Amino acid sequence: MTEPLDPSAAVGRVIGTDPATPLEFWVAVREGAFLQLDDVLVLERRLPGQSEPIRIYGMVADLRARHEGARFDSDVFLIENGVLPAEVTEAARVLATRFEPEVYVTPLPGQLVSKATGDARDQALFFDGMKRKIPAGLSRDGEIVHANLEFLDGTRGAHVNISGVSGVATKTSYAIFLLHALFRSGELGAGAHNTKALVFNVKGEDLLFLDRDNRELDGEQAARYAALGLPAEPFQSVELWAPPRPGDSSAAPMTGSRAGGVTAFFWTLEEFCTDGLLPFLFADADDERQQYTMVVHNVTARLQREAQAVGDGAVRVGGVTCRTFKQLANTLSDLLDDEDTRYDWAGRSIGTGTINAFARRLHAGGKDLGHLVRGDVPNPDKHRLNFQKQLAVVDIAKLSSRAQRFVVGVVLRRTFERKEETGSRKPLLFVVLDELNKYAPREGRSPIKDILLDIAERGRSLGVILIGAQQTASEVERRIIANSSLRVVGRLDSAEAGRPEYAFLPPAHRQRATISKPGTMIVSQPELPVPLVLEFPFPAWATRPDEAAPPDAGEGAQGDPFAGLGPGGDQPSR
Length: 574
What we know:
The chain is built from 15 helices and 23 strands. By secondary structure, it is an alpha/beta fold.
């Protein structure tokens, strides 16, 4: 049985000058009390013939203050000088969140309204019904805001989508904080040890220090982690990958501020041919509208059949040994120019102009991919992306747009195929990808977009969870957004906030999103009828080189100062 409300704790009464509905009503704030946005309230109404009252829960969505007794704007001066009598009144607009039991009646004018605390707050926000939950942040009054893990791990739903202005909305930082909460909250149980996350670093080198303490974390922010029940520490099981430096025969990783603990990655020409990776070189959404895509598919199939491995990742194609991407591109151009082999490689009824368009794009791609697809490095296996730690960061920030699309497409395809091969949803794999509008735009088709759609629609059953972020949700494929159970909004551009993609936000929340400060997010999840505004703490892990504490002694070239500990670690940055 629910504990009765304490009348002495009331903060106001339902007013009668504004109509009250089951979904929305106004509360007059009593003298000596105050309410702020996002406060959770509760009141009771007794119905005729029923012994137990109906509890109505709600959240403050708007506030107003005014002089009662004033008629003109200038009356404020007379009131303040004591010439004109008037009273200052405050009122709060409340959006109903829950009725217990579920009888949708209106609050009556004059009924006492109290702040919901403890169990009452959990009931108001449906936290009491969440069997498994993780801390998603703190409310404005310092209380934990939970996210239902069953809508994250695929049990009842999956995927997270985060929108916001670049550099202000802290999208990637919140995605990393969610990973930290997932790994360290204890809700994953024994499965947390094997749960993995793959993060693409698309800006600077911000995510290359997730295994380092943040020297700017102060005691106040550390206390916020304690309030959330999370440790204020960096990720413990991390591997870092970066592309090799162009023109470097030793394939040293292309990093600046992070000197050690990073491994270079690339694909061999043998993998490029046998695994059919050529279409990811033509991964622009507009490419699928071009005729040369037929040549792409024909050449891909031919390479899979005819390329012969000759060691160290090099291949022999058409009798020519190729150890660099440029050599492969030249060989393919020669085969397409030769009248005896042209139609075997390009396909029948393909015009010369279409073949030339393919060749031009192939050679242009070689400038971007020459250091990423090669067969001139001994023992290339050590540069193969094969994630072993709990958190893997793949740095693509210094690559061109074409090379970024290639890396993202190939890595996602291989990762998804491996999960399909296991046939099991466990262990879970979380994929964090920013700039989602670049890889899955609303218009057009591309190999990467097809993979992301597959993850959004089938990933839940395979244990692949997408945490996607973008500046503008209006430019992302609708089905990816629609399949995201949790939708998160940071600071929004005012024009973007008016788009239909944000219809899940009430008008007041849309307006607030245009003025939100960094670290403030608005989270919508399926069980709650009203989005929740929360704040998440400053990263306990370094997000910039100048924030990083000195590395532990013994950090090696394979990239993890905690290599001996095995999987079981923590999360990202703000």
